[in-house]
Amino acid sequence: KPPGMTSHDVVNLVRRLTGMRRVGHTGTLDPGAAGVLPICIGQATRVSEYVLGMDKSYRAELSLGQATDTEDAAGQPVLTKPVPALTPHGVELVLKGFLGKGSQIPPMYSAVRVDGERLYELARRGEVVERKPREIQIYNIKLLEIRENFILFELDCSRGTYVRTLCKNIAEKLGSTGHMSFLLRTAVG
């Protein structure tokens, strides 16, 4: 999926190209994100629930110093903090601290449903609701590059992991604030 399209836009495009009605994606990929978005067509839509539960791999860029309301580059700035001096060793230690099982609270700007409504719909109306933490697991996380106030890293994680929220949490552990400025899903399953 290229950046700028919603997962549903991709489904509609595939419907038009194939002329088939039974088309579905296997897990939302944010509009600003790019990469692997498995699409099931026709009778293959029956396997979508299995693909949905598979682990995912990503390459992400964390922009330090400024937090946004959506936790990604599409949002409005909400907080600015200075960025401490970064060293590869220090950043790697922080990243490794996220390995293993943990929990995350889904961001308000997410496709999670609460009482039948998507959280992003509530967030757009200015509403904030209590969200239940979800169990996640980070299997692997690797620093690729530090460039000024940007950190590029790769990770393998369980279904339901919000990389935007992980970026926010990494920035906080580094003593600053931040948001996810780029996301590429490199693998599903």
UniProtKB/TrEMBL annotation:
Listed SUPFAM superfamilies: Pseudouridine synthase
Assigned EC number: 5.4.99.25
UniProt keyword list: Isomerase, tRNA processing
InterPro entries, sorted: PsdUridine_synth_cat_dom_sf, PsdUridine_synth_N, tRNA_psdUridine_synth_TruB
UniProt xrefs under Pfam families: TruB_N
Top EC category: isomerase
UniProt domain Pseudouridine synthase II N-terminal: residue ranges: 15-163
One GO term (biological process): tRNA modification
Catalyses which reaction(s): uridine(55) in tRNA = pseudouridine(55) in tRNA
One GO MF term: RNA binding
Keyword tRNA processing applies: yes
Similarity comment text for this entry: Belongs to the pseudouridine synthase TruB family. Type 1 subfamily.
PANTHER family hit by this protein: PSEUDOURIDYLATE SYNTHASE TRUB1 (PTHR13767:SF2), TRNA-PSEUDOURIDINE SYNTHASE (PTHR13767)
Protein name stated in the entry: tRNA pseudouridine(55) synthase
